[in-house]
Amino acid sequence: MKGWTASDIPDQTGRTAVVTGANSGLGHVTARELARRGAQVVLACRSEARGGEAVERIRAQVPGAEVRFAPLDLADLASVRAFAAEYRGDRLDLLINNAGVMALPHRRTADGFETQFGVNHLGHFALTGLLLPRLLAAGPGARVVSVSSFMHMLGTVDPRDLNMERGYRRWTAYARSKTANLLFIHELSRRLSAAGARLTAAAAHPGYASTNLQTAAPKLEGRRATERFMEIGNRYFAQSPDHGALPTLYAATAPDVRQDDFFGPPFLMWRGTPTRSPRAKWARDDTAGRGLWAVSERLTGVRYDALAQPAAAGAMGKNTSKNTAENTAENTAKDAGKNTAKDAGKDAGQ
C-alpha cells in the first residue's frame, strides 16, 4: 500500500461505476481515473450543465473514455428514486458515495431533513439500497465506498436530534453526517457478511484536499473574508484533489480491501498516500449503527430486503437483478413522503 498512486489501479475493463458528485473535485478525479483504467462510469450529478461539462473534460483527458451523465439530487429522495429506476445497464460493480455538502447555514432538503444529514447520509443510504440488487449480482470485486472525513472525530450522531432542532451548529452537523457515513458502512458491512454476500463495503476520507467544498458555504452567504481564508488554506496546506481522491480509489479497486475498511492519508490524517485510517470509537459502535440504520429506513422508505434473499450470496442473475432493482425503486416511490423529518425524533427513540 505504501506509495500507492492512481497508476496502481487494477484494470477496470468490463466494470461499471456510479460516482456521485462527479462534476468537480474528488468525485471528478475518481470518475476520471476509473475511466482511464477502462471502467464505464456514470457521473451522477445534480446539475446537468456541470455534469455535461465534466463528461467532456474527462473525454478530452482520457480519449475513448466511456462516461455519461445522469441526473441525481441527493437532497430530494424523489430524484434518488428516479435515478435508480432509470439506471441503464445490466450491471453495477462500483458505487462511490462521494457527493456532499459542508458547513452550510441551516437549510432543509426537499423532504424536510437538515441538509447535511439529508444529503451526506440519507440520500446515499437510499441510493445504495435502491441499487443494491445490481451490486449484489455483480459478484466478487463489487464495492460500495462512502467518502467520510477526519472531521467525524468532532461529533457523534445524536439519535434524539438528528435534524438538530435543539440548536443548529454547522460544523457539528457536518461532523455528525460524516460519522453517519461511517456507521452506515459499519452496519452495511455487518449485514453483508451475515448474508454471505460478495459485495464489500468500505469508507475513505481525503484528508485535507483542496476542493470547492471549503468555499461553497462562505460564497453562498457572501462571507468574503471566510471564503478568502479557506482559499489560503487550500493553497498552502491542502493536498491536491488528485491526491485527495487516492483513498477513495484504493477503497474501490485495491485487492486487499476488507469489509468495513477505512482509508485515508497518514500524515495527521491530512496528507499522503492511502493507508488504513483510525476512526472514532463511536463510528464502530454496533448499537449506534443498528439504530441509525433503522431510523434511516423509516425516514427514506428504503429497505435492504435484497440482503435477505438468496441473491445476497451471489445466486441472482442479471435479469433478476434488473427486475428487482426496478421493482424496488417503483415500490419505494409509492411510499414517498410517508416519512418526514418530523418522524426523526420518534423513530430514533425506538
List keywords for this structure.
globular, alpha/beta, 45% helix, 350 residues, disordered C terminus
The rounded Rg comes to 19 Å
| CA-CA gap between termini | 42 Å
Going by helix content, strand content and strand pairing, the class is alpha/beta
Q: Choose one word for the global shape.
A: globular
The helix tally amounts to: 12
Strands ordered across the widest β-sheet = 3-2-1-4-5-6-7-8
Output mean pLDDT. Answer: 84
Give the H and E element order. EHEHEHEHEHEHHHHEEHHH
Q: Uncertain runs with pLDDT below 50, 5 residues or more?
A: 310-350
The total beta strand count reads: 8
* Portion of residues within helices: 40-55%
Largest sheet: 8 strands, mixed
Strand fraction equals 5-15%
How would you describe what is shown here?
The chain has 350 residues and is α/β, with parallel strands linked by helices. Helices cover 45% and strands 10% of the residues. It is globular and about 50 Å long. Helix 3 (77-86) packs parallel to helix 4 (115-137), helix 4 (115-137) packs antiparallel against helix 11 and helix 6 packs antiparallel against helix 7 (224-236). Helix 2 (48-61) links the parallel strand 2 (40-45) and strand 3.
What's this entry about, in short?
The protein is an alpha/beta fold.
Topology:
Blueprint: E1 16-20, H1 25-36, E2 40-45, H2 48-61, E3 67-71, H3 77-86, E4 94-97, H4 115-137, E5 143-147, H5 170-195, E6 200-204, H6 213-221, H7 224-236, H8 241-244, H9 246-253, E7 262-264, E8 275-276, H10 286-300, H11 318-334, H12 344-348
